[in-house]
Design a protein that fits this description.
Strand content: 15-25%
Shape: globular
Oligomer: single chain
Radius of gyration: 23 Å
């Protein structure tokens, strides 16, 4: 691995010669492979591999399988996530009991799906990414994760200011110089420069300052990067404190986890560095910040009119205290306690998905939405179920026509007990309703 000399000099200054050589050696090793099990599919995804110590649902894998060829991956039974970033679970523990949560730079969805698994059901998670193609991938992964308490948007940080001080917690996994991904991503090495580090640090401060008005007094920001340098990490945290009035919050850790603290000499700033020569994972940095002041309380949004869940869906969903609203041609069901807030979010933001998509209007037809198949709320008797072999499941995920042994009409197809999506069974063949833009392409 040919590392930039400026990067080597930077790390020598932070770590000293002995520890830098330990890090350099670790960067020559193969990266770890880790996943997080989705609790809605826990029965199907029991894994005997070593646990990630700071994340209850995290598992290290002994080798990297071909995830694309595993139907359970497409069913949302687990999420492939770098182990160090799962430390967000520990950070969340010091952030009170947030009910309105924003993951600001969320694509492709690792931290959002982790947050959604940890938050109470009555909390609403807004998962956002400002880049449309990345936001589309985010929406796909949120839908596959199957929790109804999500709202996916594609907006810039400043757009959220129109909502006022709405969020109890904002997670900002800020765009960075990517030093922590060097052994995974060679282009990150090629793009690295001292100038890029400075540009990233300035952009990160702009992102945090833009979203600051949307955080409630007494609310929290979890700020993270996948880089080592103090310019994007410690120095930015200090600037958030001195210029925005944030206060750093300590996150309890265990010494055996090998997490390093502040790299600024003489500083005891409570920040957390993951480095591959100390922890089993890639490079990662995290800090928790609290916005000073008394809580702003509730926002008191009120919808003009709420529509109850249509009768034909009351036996399809395990949770029926829901209201419905449209997004384009899709009818969505949302938890009643989220309805007013989601209505307000629809007015201000550019939504891509929320709640559970029930059906999509296609001419005179109402075609069941893929979100229904993925939802943890779907009852077992909602649709006929066709069991697919591995080859059949992969053909379905390639968006090919398949045959199913099931009644005519809309049928839920599953592999190893895990739903994959819908088909319209015509008898001699079944029209494949898997989203074509998600299909396996090789």
């Amino acid at each position: 691995m040919q590392l930039p000399q400026d990067f080597i000099n930077q790390m020598l200054g932070l770590l000293g010669e002995v520890e830098w050589e330990q890090l350099r050696a670790a960067l020559e090793e193969k990266p770890t492979v880790s996943v997080r099990v989705n609790d809605k599919h826990s029965a199907a995804t029991e894994m005997d591999d070593a646990p990630v110590p700071w994340c209850n649902s995290g598992r290290y894998l002994n080798q990297r399988p071909n995830f694309t060829q595993d139907p359970l991956f497409h069913a949302g039974a687990y999420y492939v996530q770098e182990a160090s970033s799962m430390f967000v679970e520990q950070a969340l523990k010091v952030c009170g009991e947030p009910k309105t949560v924003l993951d600001l730079c969320a694509a492709p969805g690792g931290k959002s799906t982790l947050l959604r698994s940890l938050l109470p059901d009555d909390a609403l998670l807004v998962s956002n990414d400002p880049v449309r193609n990345r936001a589309n991938v985010l929406a796909e992964n949120i839908i596959k994760w199957g929790h109804e308490g999500c709202f996916v948007s594609c907006n810039y940080p400043k757009d959220f200011q129109r909502l006022g001080a709405l969020f109890d917690l904002v997670l900002i996994d800020a765009p960075c110089s990517g030093e922590g991904m060097f052994r995974r991503d060679n282009p990150a090495i090629e793009m690295w420069s001292i100038g890029n580090v400075e540009e990233c640090a300035l952009r990160q401060y702009e992102i945090v300052s833009d979203i600051w008005p949307a955080v409630k007094n007494g609310g929290y920001i979890i700020y993270s990067t996948c880089t080592y340098n103090v310019r994007e990490n410690e120095e930015n945290v200090i600037r958030f404190c001195t210029e925005l009035g944030a206060e750093p919050v300590e996150v309890p850790t265990c010494p055996e986890w090998g997490i390093k603290g502040c790299l600024l000499e003489g500083s005891a700033l409570p920040v957390y560095h993951f480095m591959p020569h100390c922890t089993k994972g890639e490079g990662f940095f995290l800090s928790v910040l609290r916005k000073k002041g008394e809580s702003n309380g509730t926002n008191g949004f009120r919808s003009k009119k709420l529509r109850s869940l249509p009768k034909e869906y009351t036996e399809c969903l395990q949770h029926t205290d829901m209201t419905v609203t449209e997004l384009g041609n899709v009818l969505h069901a949302v938890r009643s306690e989220h309805a007013d807030l989601i209505a307000r979010l629809q007015e201000v933001l550019y939504p891509l998905h929320f709640g559970v998509g029930l059906h999509e209007a296609k001419g005179r037809k109402q075609v069941p939405h893929h979100s229904m198949a993925m939802s943890r709320l779907l009852t077992t008797n909602a649709y006929p179920i066709a069991k697919l072999t591995l080859d059949e499941a992969l053909a379905y995920l390639r968006h090919e026509a398949i045959k199913v042994d099931a009644p005519r009409g809309y049928v839920l197809v599953a592999h190893q007990g895990q739903p994959l999506g819908f088909v319209n069974n015509l008898g001699s063949r079944a029209n494949n309703l898997y989203p074509s833009e998600w299909r396996i392409r090789h």
